[in-house]
Protein: Endonuclease/exonuclease/phosphatase domain-containing protein
Amino acid sequence: MTSLPMRLRVATLNHKRGGYDRDSGIHDFGAVRDSLSTLEQPPHVLFMPECTYYTKFRCRPFFEFLELLQDLWGMTTTPDGQRTTVGRYQGWISTVPGSINVPGLFVETRFVRPREWYEHDEERKLLANTLLADINGHEIRLKCEHWNGSDGATGFDQQASRSGQLAQYRSLTGGDFNAAPTHPDATYPEDWGAHCDAQGTPWKRSQKGIRTSEGWKVHTTAYDAFLEHGWRDAAIEAGDLTPTVNPAAEGTSGMCIDHIAWSTRAPITLVPGSYRVHVRPGTHLSDHWLVSCELDIAPAVP
Structure:
């Protein structure tokens, strides 16, 4: 057992439909690769909130994506002279009834040692789609989130409550929460209804908004409530609320909605200066930017 902290590289990328093209019916991972290539080193934990149809078509897209991760950061030589890939990954795709844009979780198994995967279970919704893993001697639960906006403010409040309760464990989560925090440095449209109208998407009012006596406002209190259950947010810890959505995308919210967070029970601290929103002006790779950070995992006490 090590007596030193472990530096964990974490990233979340909500690439639109995970590279799936509705017109052709196939997955094109070229743009996904391009987004991930901005990471100089392979992440130990990668949250992919939209793994659309990864487990369909005999799971071929899933294995193609795993191969992409294995190859993306090249090869290295082991101490005994063997050539091997820099990254070694295993992945799990969540089951979310009523959704095809389901979250995926991918871990580098030399640093994150899988112990148990909790399948979707209507009787145990809290732990559904969660991986129990050993990280530097600690049992930590990992979960990729993709909060669904189709049920409006009530649905967001319910998801915040359920996801928030995972803080009773040592937990690390990330993904597209479709929600921004109430924060003085956060940016979001003052009049959410007018913003949706200007984008030509009035039906998106309820996806991130709440109707008040003053009209439609951005519903920030849902993510606030999630954090109040006992979570720390990497962007807030870093003091960097850069919007995580691509302004070139149609109907963009202009908000920081992709998050990496850990429970206060977890022995985790953010490495100063490591948080980054991988903004790439002028590109149309996806409607979200890649977000990454480094976390120090304290050693386990014997």
Remarks:
- The two ends are 8 Å apart (CA to CA).
- The chain has a mean pLDDT of 93.
